[in-house]
Specification:
single chain, 213 residues, alpha/beta, seven-stranded mixed sheet, four-stranded antiparallel sheet, 8 helices, 11 strands, 26% helix, globular, Spermidine synthase
Amino acid sequence: MEERVFTDRGELVLRSRDGHFELISNGVFLMDTRSGRSERVLVRAALAATGPRPRLLIGGLGVGFSLAEAVRTDASEIIVVEIEPAVVAWHQGVLRPFSEGALDDPRVRVVTGDLAVWFTGTSDRFDAICLDVDNGPSWTVFDHNTGLYRQSGLVMLREHLRPGGVLAVWSASVEPAFAATLTRVVGPVRTVRIPVARGRPDVVYVASCAGDR
């Protein structure tokens, strides 16, 4: 099975392979449904540093593992921002088992749009933001996504955190320079490494605001 759509960002393919699904953008592999461990860690690590019934934002729906983990928590509200309408639609169909029907949870609201653009038009603030856009700070498929991981993008994200809030960022590799910038802009950073079957471990950076900055 293969579904192919053409968007403002080019070709997006959802492909079935060996009983799993892969998301491929312009010929570049983005993610698949084989594990999801690091995406779940992203959410757990962020919410472990918040109080009860946190308000959570997830940047990037992907194959749904982060959202599925989020609805298992006591989060009071979960907003998911996903730029590709096709990805959202696939979670009403073939990807629904991987997000575990989480789109139907009454706490969940899906925003279809660019995360940076959406942030510029809202004053909403969150107890935790989980950022899983593209492949992390330095391995981006789309150049415009690099802005989220630069100082100016991190300042924007910090401004949408409540006092004491948490920003958790998924990365495909260890990024010491990014971690240093994150510490400077947001606050103390905890680094979580998640072993994978092949290659270097995935990494989750968890930065906590010390207070109202």
